[in-house]
Amino acid sequence: MHHAGSSDDWLTDSRAIRGVSFFADAPAVPHSWPMTVPAIAQLAEGLEFEPGVTFLVGENGSGKSTLLEGIAMAFGFPAEGGSRNGGASTRASESPLGDWLKIDRGLVAPRWGFFLRAETMHGYYSYLEALPDSPDRDLHEMSHGESFLALLDRKIDSPGFFCLDEPEAALSFGSTLRFIAQLDTLAKAGAQIVCATHSPVLASLPGATILELGEWGIRRSEWDDLELVQHWRSFLDSPPRYLRHLLA
């Protein structure tokens, strides 16, 4: 999935990572998980990442969160989420992929980065609360959505490298639109963002690269062509068409 650029691209290349591939000695076993997931197996061919925002979309089980976690861990983020300076650590990673992946790093190392996992944010709040003189002790006192928005504002607020796993999970429609604007501002300032999402709203960000994961592996897609978008359009047009089969 290589996309060639001009010979001068390297002069303005702000990417933190240019791509990922397997280490030559990675003990990836073809018939065991996660290599049984087509998108993960395809990494043997290498996967390039564009500057700005890249969305990973696909059904549950397509490998998008596994891929995102592997990239985050290979880059140096804690498995539970957080920055390279620290994060909560209450369980081992679900996947060995982070140990197998070789990161093709960009020319300039980002000064800031963050791995956001919606499912582990409660533990991360506790980690922040316990830090001396922490400015984030108020997060536990907010509603789930409010704390999530506050975390996004505070930790994903400057150019750097960000791995985001389903950040829309706690966001209302209006908050998701606000977050799209935040991502756009960061991308234009030189940030690189890789985001796994189920949200057709979030994935609509103009100029973003969309990688669709499924039984085919990984393919580049346009927003209008995504199965995700087609399903939502069809459902919203006529919910009974779907629900009468489920609720009979």
Features:
Rossmann fold, 248 residues, 31% helix
Structure write-up:
The chain is 31% helix and 18% strand. It is built from eight helices and nine strands. It has helices spanning 38-41, 64-75, 97-100, 121-130, 144-155, 173-188, 227-237, 239-246; strands at residues 17-22, 47-48, 53-57, 101-105, 113-117, 161-165, 192-196, 209-214, 217-221. The strands form two sheets. Strands 5-6-7-3-8-9 form a six-stranded mixed β-sheet. It has a three-stranded antiparallel β-sheet with strand order 2-1-4.
Put the structure in a nutshell.
The chain has helices at 38-41, 64-75, 97-100, 121-130, 144-155, 173-188, 227-237, 239-246; strands spanning 17-22, 47-48, 53-57, 101-105, 113-117, 161-165, 192-196, 209-214, 217-221. The protein has a six-stranded mixed beta sheet. The chain has a three-stranded antiparallel beta sheet with strand order 2-1-4. With 248 residues, it is an alpha/beta fold.
